Protein: Coproporphyrinogen-III oxidase
Amino acid sequence: MDQSVKFNLDLINRYDKSGPRYTSYPTALELHDGFSEQDYTQQIALSNARGGPLSLYFHIPFCDTVCYYCACNKIITKNREHAEPYLANLFKEIQLQGALFDSKRVVNQLHWGGGTPTFLDYGQMHRLMAAARQHFNLKEDDTGEYSIEIDPRATDDKTISQLRELGFNRISLGVQDFDPAVQQAVNRIQSEAQTFAVLEAARKEGFRSTSIDLIYGLPLQTVTSFSVTLDKILSVSPDRFSIFNYAHLPARFKTQRQINEKDMPSAEVKLDILQMIIRRLLEAGYVYIGMDHFAKPDDELAIAQRENKLYRNFQGYSTHSDCDLIGLGITSIGRVADSYVQNVKELAAYNVLISKGELPVFKGFVLNAEDQLRRAVITQLICHFSLSFSDIERIYNIDFKHYFSSELSALKIMRDDGLLVMNDDGIQVLAVGRLLIRNICMIFDAYLKSNTEQFSKVI
Structure:
């Protein structure tokens, strides 16, 4: 498989618009409060009947400082004791959900996100993992994909050793930018020494994969300054990069209002930074996975993409398309059987439902046959940059060209612009079209409204 990507400024400007990131289809905007606990338990029963492995996501919402760019659901506090009531409820939810899933189903994938999961001390983390092992069938042979998001400011050698002992074998380190002025502007002061010490400790402890998170488009960033940050990260050669485009939406996210608008880089500068990023990472031997992700050619993500096994879920790209995903903790979203389900977002509501022995269901969505068909099309495109009409026809019993005649007609403009190739067999997205894969997927989105401003820009 060709895993290259090309930057074409003219096409990027022409297709510059907002659109979904397709961590799910339909997107989370379609989840509704008409979905009940009973609806969820029905989907769990269907999931058990189908069988297969599981994936667990735990949301740890606590941070001890606020990063002004953050759009996550978080609770800012320096007191670790504030996590105790939340953990008590989370343990009860683990018990409630664990009792509903077939205990023989193995957990192939586990992820702690936030917030800052390493806000928890070792005793708290140990109790949380013990609860997961008690109520779900976690692997004991280190073959699962058990990952955690790391803030190097809240982590040291001892923490890394403890995380490895608990069963984690993959870490993602938040960096964003090393430039002191940028760090000051977004209230995330983090030294290179802190970051690289954690990375080195993870390698010594035998973590199988290390990923670095960066953000471009932050205040005061320039091509030159971000290139310096990239130089420093490339010198330690992480397995993966996640390099996100900062979406400045202060009307929606209160903390972003603390960013000085005058310091924001222009759209032209952001594109120049992106072009530099792509060139530098490709020169360094990384391949473009899609969206904001790059990986070494021998990384499991890159291999899964070449083998047509890559998947996309609420945590991003994944190698475990066969897993039903169970979300645990406030605001978490799962995908079980034919549904998506989201937990309540507030601590008070979470506490009320858990104290009554009820699942903390907030919203959900049950996919119908057409939703599943369109999800399969979008997933293939966004993960593999290609689509076989015959594969879809065989699984969903349709005539692709007849069923999607209007969509194929709409794609002709993108074909003529050189984003993709279409023939009787299928669609192949070209290197120049891969940065615009969200635009291509949007053609197949039956829910997309004309007003897409609730989404981030595609580039």
Summary: The first strand starts at residue 54 and ends at 60.
